[in-house]
Every structure is written in C-alpha cells, then in structure tokens.
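Hi there,

I know you've been waiting on this one. I reran it after we fixed the sequence typo, so this is the corrected version. Both the input and the resulting structure follow.
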Amino acid sequence: MRTDSLVFALSGTFLGLILGWIIGTQHAAPVRAGNQAAAMAPPQQAAATTTPVGGSGQAALLDENKVKALESAAGQRPQDAAVRTELGNMYFDAERYADAIKWYEQAFALEPRNVNVSTDLGVSYYYTNQADRAIAQLSRSLDVDPTHTKTLLNLGIVRAFGKQDLEGAAEAWQRVIEIAPGSSEGRAARQALDSMKSAHPEVGSAKPAAPPTGGK
C-alpha cells in the first residue's frame, strides 16, 4: 500500500457538474489510496486526470504472472495482509473492483486498523455501486483516524454523488479545511465547498431552531 491516500483535483468539468448538480447519471470517481495528485472528476469527464479512474479507459494493465505469484503466496500465507493488499491494489488499478474488494476485505480482516486498506475498500464499494457500504467503510476508517483528510475528501464525494447528500458532503469537506487548510487536500476541499455553495447557498447555512418559549 502506498502511504498517501485519496486526493482529488477539481477540474473545470467537475466544477460545472457541481454547479449544475447533474446527479442522476453521473458518478464521481475516487481513486485508490496512495495515488498522488489523483483526479476525482466523474468518469465521463476525466480527461484532465493523471491517475486511472473508473470508466476512464485508463486502467492499468494487469500483470497476470505477478497476480498468479501473489495469489500463490496468499494461499501459502493465510495471515499475510501485505500480499492481499498488493493484490487488491493491482486489481483496483486495473479497474477490476469486484476482484479488488475480495482481497481488500481479506487484508482488512487481518488488519482492521489499517486506514489505507479500509479506505481503498470503501472506494471499491463505491465503484461497484454500493454507496451505503462505501460510506460505512469510510466511516470505519475515520473511527481509527478521525483526522485522515483524504478519507474525508472521499467521504464528501461519495455522499455528494452517491447519495445526493449535499449537507453531508459539505460537512466532510469543511472538516478537511479545519484539519489541514494549507494542504492539497484542504485546498481541494475548499474549492469543492465553494463551488457547491455558489450553486446551493443554503448548504451548510441552516441554523438551529430557536428553543421554545415558555407559555403562561
């Protein structure tokens, strides 16, 4: 597993998607943990990305010989989380997300406090149209590390595009800004949040109801 987790770059097309809020047939595209400067534009609009994203036609070629060797090693070492993580990574990069889930789930079972594996698993769920499972898994990552900014970035994307939950997305992105305002994650979260609020100023602006006054 690469040490960095998920980062997205807001392209003009992604900005336009947020402004118009075309949710029904579009999905944002998180990428595997560790891919630096990874794009998180919708798959149909991923021309500006530098990292493979779902449905973009940029899938990595799968080294079948290496896969066979790793699978053999996994069979011989049932407690080896690292080999299972590597298999998950290879399948993810090849956009074979169902296969990635199989190996990430095994790795996560062995190392339930590995935030990167947990987040990769959550992203894989999202790619297989399982937004609720993705959110649950990303939440487990945050149970381990509540300040894991790249997980929070992806949580915002999944909430926004997978669940059409603007308030939930805004909350996740605002948390990134609070934790690391000067980081690449913080800047991306700020741009996403500003873009959303430009089109939907009501997002994040709800005020708590006034307490009831006592009657006589």
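Quick highlight: Residues 184-199 form the longest helix (16 residues).

Best,
R. S.
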